[in-house]
Amino acid sequence: MDTSLHQADNTAGERTFVVRILRQDGPGKDAYWERHRVVHGADMNCISVLQEIAEQATTIDGRKVAPVVWECNCLEEVCGACTMVINGRVRQACTALVDRLLAERPGEIELRPMTKFPVLRDLMVDRRRIFTALEKVKAWVPVDSYYHMGPGQRQSQETQQMAYLYSKCMSCGCCLEACPQFLKIELSRKQGETEEEFRAREREAIDRSFMGAHAVAQVELFSSNPIGRMNASERLDALTSPGGIQTCGNAQNCVKVCPKEIPLTTAIARAGRSATLHTLKKWFDK
Amino acid sequence: MVKPRVMVVGGGLAGLAASMKLAELGVDVGLMSLMPVKRSHSACAQGGINSTNDLTRQLGDSEWKHFDDTVYGGDFLQHQPPVKELAYWAPQIIDLMDRLGVTFNRTPEGFRDQRRFGGTLYHRTAFAGATTGQQLLYALDEQVRRWEVTGHVSKYESWDFLGPILDDAGRCRGCVSQDMVSMEIRAFPADALILASGGCGAIFGRSTNSVACTGSAVSRAYQAGARYANAEFVQVHPTAIPGADKLRLISESARGEGGRVWVPRRPQDPRPPSDVPEDERYYFLEERYPKYGNLVPRDIATREVFNVCVTEGLSVEADRMCVYLDVSHLPREMLDRKLAGILEIYEKFQGVDPRRSAMKIFPAVHYSMGGLWCDYDRTADGGLQSGSPRNQQTNLPGVFAVGECDYQFHGANRLGANSLVACIYSGLSVAPGVAAYVGNLPQRPAVEQPSSLYDRAAQKHRAEYEGLLARSDGGPNPYRLHAELGRIMTAAATVVRHNDKLEEAYGRVSELQRQAYDCSLSDTGTWANQNLIFVRALQDMFPLAKTILKGALARDECRGAHYKPEFAMPEVDAEDPAERRRQAEDWCQRFRRNNRKWLKSTVADLSADGEPQLSYEDVDTSLIPPRPRLYGVLGGETIEEVWRSSHPDNTAPRKS
User: Fold this and answer.
1) ipTM above 0.90, yes or no
2) Helix (H, G, I), strand (E, B) or coil at B167
3) Domain boundary pick from A99, A121, A143
4) pTM metric for this prediction
5) Max CA-CA distance within chain A?
6) What confidence score (pLDDT) does residue A1 get?
7) CATH code of the domain made up of B238-362
């Protein structure tokens, strides 16, 4: 008995399409376009396209090249790894289906790295800054310990549903790519600077710059949690510090590109109100 | 910066849980991962996490019954003390995750909501929409970030674990890893190493696993002398969506919330599923398993789906095997509140809204019940000695294994929603033992070991790396070899296994392995070389693949996910009651005989020539004596009757 589970049907003719990729060999190197031809198979997405390109490792004009470098993991849009700019739009490569992309723009798919993060190589960028912002706003519930202390507090379905909207954020960076206030920071190590000094200087630059909508939404998430609420004011300190919510220019691009449809602008509006009250309170308490 | 005492490899649920608990115990941790830990494969777990809870308790449930369901579902192939401990810890783990802010779904009164999962009759499964794994992962990721800020956890993200460092006495003194961007190879001194690197689905080509689930870290430990147990027990999940790059899971929770599996009674009925009238639908799981219905354990559901398509020819499509998983009859509001995550996956990838039309699904490789062999310290009453360094320790002193990469909890088949609880449990519970281990080292700690130990280890891996870079052109293409490996393994070692096919597969995999050591790199650069990292991971798939095949070949029986029709139990199907009873007596006798021979864990050592050597380990079944795993077997009632008369104290789960 043949037990061929899920063998892909790649025999549907030899229809092909072209993939145009903006490549870069490393930080500080020049970017360049490269074209690859890929056979159009069934159920393809941009991940299987890149897998195909890795296997071929040959450009459209027959030149042998190194496989294109990119990040991915879950391939079902829950890990946030494979964010890139596809046909001009920031999104995850896994849910970018070839049939649909070719229907929008026949014959060719364009892939380029996100523009707001330093390119490490090809489509792989350095997004550590996203997690730095989560540190800054203390995006966690500060429990006393991990010993058994009974359950968390009861909460209404409505509260849970609202929190769930925010807690689905996978730190993919789409909202940052689309944000006019979120600017690229790309520093390189100066002569004589140690690795630690360089990281400190980089951290300072990141802390001064806009944290982005995702971090604001996490403040809303944790400050609405019954335990997380207890240190809401620390998060508001972060939110009102340089690079905080006042930097938001209200362009509202973030909410349009969020793959998880997180109500980012609602979060910004609510956090903005809390931040104003927090600032006033601190001023009166002086 | 303080040097970490313990290195954790893998930042999914198990690795994160171990890291945060160690940090709480005052042990500094280095956490190493192939990617930012928030992007780990645990994010893919959908349906929920099991524990006895206040509600089920009042309906007769107990921790003991959770324990019983788990070992019965696993066909008794797991040591019982760790599983018992897990079941008793489970309610506390869910409470902890609740305190950490996991957005568990709520009842109208504000309690945590629970649904039913496979292999049980109780609603034990707490859930956060249909992205429970993601939500649990994030809560632990956040806690670890908290410890990172205080300096007690240092993360090494984008580092590829290359192997443990063992001193002359065989004791672990750290590990060697490679930065996947700069390609720097570095030795990390550490007094203990915790492997929490997950499963190895990539050995089967496409599976429900994430890209990183190559099993490479485990394989490297195995090649360094760690034992690997029960490799042949690979869970094939009944419901996944086919894809060119991945087979995407549709969670068991779809069935837990009332989803039904069916095929049209007319083969390849061309009508859209919603137009097929009720009496022309074959709800084959409900018909064959009236008690558990669509929630039979996964190995059984998978075989039935497979059977209905392959043997009975009732696949929905002619050229691609699939059956319907239908939730379109369920209230839309409930679907959106409890299952949105998986329904969106189906809609995004298939372009069909499952709220309106039945989904097309087929089984896919999902989970490795087997893993690194590890120890436990049993108490007199069959629990675990808390804080003992023996718990979860592999045969390599100082190397521990937790999460999917250990073999401890699931036996021959894992029950749905038990993996998340086992990952968090093993991660949390290993910490006190590791803390005790590093606090009582018989020799000087890693930082005081001679630097030559580390230089030598790093140099060995550097030489291998340079050897890879220096490979010549014109060899086989590694990506094609991987696809071929996946095809062979999927055909020979998934739902149905035959000895001739397994033997043939072993030969072909050995040949592929030779080619893999010969394959060419298309990237010979020394910066972010993913091609090289892939080739190395591919090479390391072979020792595990061969262990899976060899274990399956040797095991001439059917147990849980391991199914060989040639060794299936006889049917108890006679019309005549006396004859049926006689058949049942034979059945029970054969069952006992088979258990004497095969109720044993397969334990593999990799010999110097790279071939797995198998031995067998008795299973501690001292708490719940093994009994026939019947669920809905034909003639099951008669078998149970016969069994009960000869084993009066060993039928239903006893109370704790």
Assistant:
1) yes
2) coil
3) A121
4) 0.96
5) 80
6) 34
7) 3.90.700.10
